[in-house]
Amino acid sequence: MIVRRCIRLGLGLSILLTTAAGCSDADLTGPIVYEEQPAMSREVEGKAHLAGKPRIQEKARKTLARLYGPSPKEIHVPEGAPLSKDEQGRLGVLLANHVQTAQGPEKLPHAGGYGLYRRHCLHCHGVSGAGDGPTAPFLFPLPRDFRRGLFKFTSTPNGARPERDDLRRTIRDGLHGTSMPAFEALLTKKEIEQVVDYVTFLSLRGETELALIEEGFIADDEDEDALEDDIVDELVQSVFGKWEDAADTVVDPPVPRTPPSPESVARGRELFLGRTKEKLECAGCHGAKGLGDGPSFVDVDVFNRVVFGGDPSKMPERVAKLDEKARELWKQKLDEWGNPLRPANLSRAVYKGGRRPIDLYWRIAKGITGAQMPAHYPGIDHAQIWDLVNFVLALPYQPELLDDAPAPAAAEGVAADAPAVRR
Length: 423
Ligand code: HEC
Ligand code: HEC
Description:
The protein contains 16 helices and two strands. The protein is an all-alpha fold. It folds into four domains: 1-28, no CATH class; 32-248, no CATH class; 252-296 and 343-423, Cytochrome c-like domain (Cytochrome Bc1 Complex, Chain D, domain 2), CATH 1.10.760.10; 298-332, no CATH class. A hairpin with a 2-residue loop joins strand 1 and strand 2 (104-107). Helix 7 packs across helix 8 (189-217) and helix 8 crosses helix 9. The structure holds heme C (2 copies). One heme C binds at residues 152, 272, 280-282, 284-286, 296, 341, 343-344, 346, 351-353, 360, 363-364, 368, 371-374, 376, 388, 392, 411, 414.
């Protein structure tokens, strides 16, 4: 078993591992290093970057290593980091390599948040949590890049950090219809807490890295005081603060679910089709029949040709070949991470963020962070959101609900009341 995993790791990470042959335990915890965000040393169009500022770059690198440790093998947790208060969760982050058993200390090369992450998540989400593990290029949608602290399937407002329970739920139940697996059967409850901490750790680290880049961008390379301790402290506290605030912002519907009566479903349908005074644009994105083929997004066939039409690394070339209109639409309809995005096909009864009424309530009320699905509260009220939930849940079993739906117009963009994504 160990040998097989060594070979697999060796294949996937052959650039990083010096040798797969023999694959000793030392190799398993081998020279795996964090990857820098490109803006650390290169110009990135329209974004803060540190190109041409070698001294500030060095300071940023040293600061990051001081705060979070120089490599995944040596993890530091900065004072006050919003990780689990539970001793076990904390130990998880601190790479618990040994446990005390009746027979003496037992070596657990894969225990702890990092070890578990490395075994179960790294091949998709990557060493730094950039969503760039060796499996990633073959997947659609791509694994999440954790480094901006943005998560799609949360109970918190659009753009806010997730609540701990949101991450726990994603890891336990997976994201249906994507390659993100459910780990309920593979990890114990304690282990799930440990990977939640490790994912949070990678997010905090990535967000701090970005904050350092942004701060350094406005400083002069000669400035001795740039990125000095006080400023760094403030940056880090602001990164932590967003996570700490998240728990207080969970959106709980103040009215119970409306029973899913035919009347409620019919009201939901009218809302979906934009026939009420609120003129919702669901159908513009999700399509008149809810098939995920609305005119606000690139035509499904074009999308499929670009995303699935051959070598994933050649996708930009396929985009370049599109006609001007399709190319423009393509660029507008990428997700926050710059990846291709498709509105959900609502006829399948498969919901990434879960199929409980409350899950769909959250998706419709607060939208999906980073994925162009806008927040609809407070544009519509809670009872209307429940009507929409009832309609969405009924549709796969009663497709005739949309038999007479007119072709929708393309949406102008996201609804005006959708809050911009906070960084
Ligand atoms: C086979 C690939 C794969 C593996 C293994 C995997 N993931 Fe994912 N993960 C994904 C994909 C793909 C997505 C994004 C799906 C999407 O955006 O629709 C994702 C998304 C996520 C998200 C973001 C959810 C959100 O609300 O945005 C978290 C958190 C996450 N994964 C954690 C983990 C953890 C922890 C592990 C290991 C225990 C893991 N993943 C293993 C593929 C994987
Ligand atoms: C501007 C485009 C847009 C509008 C308007 C829009 N959506 Fe979405 N919606 C999306 C996209 C894109 C996704 C897929 C996000 C992803 O997979 O990451 C999505 C996903 C969903 C999902 C699936 C959630 C899940 O867990 O997989 C549901 C349900 C949904 N939308 C319902 C609605 C309803 C109801 C409305 C109107 C009240 C609406 N949407 C309006 C773009 C939109």
